[in-house]
Amino acid sequence: MTEAAAVHLAYADLVSLLERIFVRHGVSEHNAKILAENCAGCERDGSLSHGIFRMAGYVSSLNSGWVDGKAVPEVEDVGPAFVRVDAKGGFTQPAMLAARPLLIEKVKANGVAVLAIRRSHHFSALWPDVEPFAEEGFVALSVVNSMACVVPHGGKKAVFGTNPVAFASPRAGAAPFVFDQASSAIAHGDVQIAARAGHDLKPGMGVDRDGQPTNDPKQILDGGALLPFGGHKGNSIALMVEILSAALTGGYFSGEFDWSGHKGAQTPFTGQFFIVIDPARGGNDVFAERVAGICDLVLEAGQERLPGDRRHVTRAKAEKDGIPLSAENHEKLKALAEG
Ligand code: NDP
Ligand code: PYC
Questions:
Q1: Over the stretch 59-118, which tens digit does the pLDDT of each residue have?
Q2: Long-range contacts made by residues 281-285, C-beta under 8 angstroms, separation at least 24?
Q3: Beta bridge partners of 275
């Protein structure tokens, strides 16, 4: 948040405000609680591209009839280590939570299990999906594809979504090690935020509608596209995410779904994939200590901080002082809840 914060809300108060917005716009109370906790958690941790900034988009998608806020996911037990979920056109977070007990049961029984969610909408950061697994002692990796806005390396047409990958591992003596990153050079949400603020992007993030490099976020949003991070290497990760999140789950590729009949739709209708591992099966009794060890080595070698550190510092401050919101954003949320 760049402007001075006029309001500091306790996490529980922000959750309750967001819950009211979701329910008012057609989300079941069960799903609204899950989505509100997810979104408030992003805001609390300073994941601002997926915090309250996204509420107008959630509402717009719900109002357009594109996403079913009342969807009840169907969990299928399809193998000793394989769980599938049909999210039935709803959000992925309730689908994941519906499958979680069976998934954990399978991880405990087999040492590893996968979860494939299809026909689902994901409009948030990915770290809230994996961090809780690591807090329970498991290693987790998740990927989700989104909407076509990334041109393949050397290509001309957007094929990939911004396709993030998130990974979480227990770490002795500290919060789990977690990273969560788009496979595009920048998340689409951050391009929107830069466009709104009138800031240019760093070079190498996107192209305009003619495929020419541009640093102007508005040109990227107006018919242009993003680039994968790291050239051909990020490109392969984006492609892997499409394969795991869509081909494997039975969901749509990022360029495959047609939302043109739903004016205002913003939430990508794709799939999400998880691998969850019980590290105890690795036969290493000091797994979490080893993770802490390699993290320490990285810091001793000169890396300023580890992924997740910024979030935890922001979270601790928000837990002490409340979650900072500008007066304007607070008013906008209240209007969405009441108007
Ligand atoms: P960032 O580039 O901001 O951060 C990526 C990761 O790198 C984070 O784990 C971050 O940790 C870490 N990091 C950042 N700077 C440093 C540093 N200097 N040293 C060490 N680690 C660092 O994220 P992205 O822009 O790639 O993605 C933003 C969000 O957008 C993600 O949460 C992602 O899930 C979400 N997203 C969601 C999509 C969807 O379809 N739902 C699509 C694309 C993106 P920290 O958080 O502590 O800064
Ligand atoms: O920020 O790239 C993004 C994004 C896409 C879908 C949800 N967030």
A1: 999 999 999 999 999 999 999 999 999 999 999 999 999 999 999 999 999 999 999 999
A2: 281/111, 281/112
A3: 114, 141
CA distance linking residue 146 with residue 158, whole number of Å:
12
The verdict on the CB of residue 314 being under 6 Å from ligand 1 is no
The CATH number for 72-184+228-307, chosen from 3.30.1370.60, 3.30.70.20, 3.40.50.300, 3.40.50.150, is 3.30.1370.60
The verdict on the CB of residue 51 being under 6 Å from ligand 2 is no
Q: Are strands 323-325 and 165-169 parallel, antiparallel or unpaired?
A: unpaired
Q: Is 49 in the pocket of ligand 2 (CB under 6 A)?
A: yes
Mean of pLDDT over the chain? 97
State the residue for tokens 């500290």: 174
User: 168: number of CA atoms within 13 Å, CB side?
Assistant: 23
CATH class as words, domain 1-63+308-339: mainly alpha
CA of 167 to the centre of ligand 1 (A): 11
| pLDDT tens sequence across 226-249 | 999 999 999 999 999 999 999 999
Distances (CA, A) of 179 to 62, 134, 240, 243: 30, 12, 17, 21
